[in-house]
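Handout, tutorial session.
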Amino acid sequence: MKKTSKHRAGSRLARGISRLLKVATLLSSAAFMGMVVLQIVARFAFTQAPSWTEEAARIFFIFTISFAAGLAAKSKYYVAMDLLYNRLSPRMQNWLDLLNNLLVLLLFGLMLVYSIDFIRLGMVETSPSMRVPMAIPFASMFIMALFILYYVLLDTLRALKSLRS
């Protein structure tokens, strides 16, 4: 009984995180497109767009990528070479998946740790046009690493479970 309620809570958390990332991706994409449209309209109406719109568009684009990266990891949308992979036995595929996941966990674990230092550096620096702390756009690295780690860790646990059976 406990295992079932624990599983339900875990899947509820996973659905919540997935929903949060989808909404954040949608909102940051809409804001990015809004900034680009504002730039275009301002160039035609006033011959020059406000300088901050380009910077804002860049920041929204960065966050769009950061939020969507975890979802891409969840759905396995990253490019993969599968010519050799498809010829392997299911057990060897599981071992290769596990090795790949461990390398990804190492890489994004390092990115997560070092992004914290990067965010700290950005606390004292501001962006040129909008004058926002650079820690805000730098936080996108932390967000990306965190959610890629989350989904790859879930996949790693599934791969380990599959290898045991």
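The second record follows below. Compare its token runs with those of the first.
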Amino acid sequence: MSGNSKRSRWIIRAEAAYRQFFVRYCCDRQSSLQVAEFPKSGGSWISGMVSDLLQIDFPRNRFPASRSSLFHGHVLVRFPVKNALVVWRDPRDVMVSWYFHSIVGNSHVQPSFVASCRRRSGIVDAGNVKSNMQKFVRWCFEDPYSPAFTWSDFYDYWSCQDCDVLKYEDVLQNPVDALLSLEFLSCFSGDREASVRRVVEAHSFAKQSGRRSGVEVKGAFLRKGVAGDWVNYFDSDALATLMSYAGDRMNGLGYT
């Protein structure tokens, strides 16, 4: 699995700009697909499975080249392609995973990005996750940085779009049924269930990380692969802060 830790920020930005150009003017809009997520919601994992099922290119951390492609990203824009999928995850788990990504860091993120996030958030003792969580949540909602929008902004845009929906938790619990529920796979030729089972096995957490789900490596991009881990890192103050920013939206998605 490739990452961004050793790639120039200019290259990353140029690639993002080119992707926007490519999806508007070069791709096959009928066969291409957009997958949108707020960071750390499982979108990369799900995109890998879907691209394998559809047998289309997934240009991750590189410039797109195929006219039939899956375009994954953290954006507030609906690309002009026929099908789109939005991936939701419990915002409490999102905050925990985003903390480990942006404040602790891993092999997929540039050290300069981590340093910038620590400076902007005012967090100096990165290892004290639980004691820092309230401050981190407040920073994410009051001064968002890369992406420059909040989880609530993402919800407000994508909850109104006409697209397929998956919840990370549903995919974890029963990935075969979750993927089979996607409307844009209804025209899939061949044995859909057998193909989905094959892809799910190939993209399992164990296959991708070399660890069984639930075994944590704090400095890894694929850290733990579970739902509900937020209970280990949220105290009552952090939870109250998150609910004050996003409680109604969380309830709307069933995250209570």
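Points raised in discussion: The chain has two domains: 9-89+154-207, 91-147+212-252.
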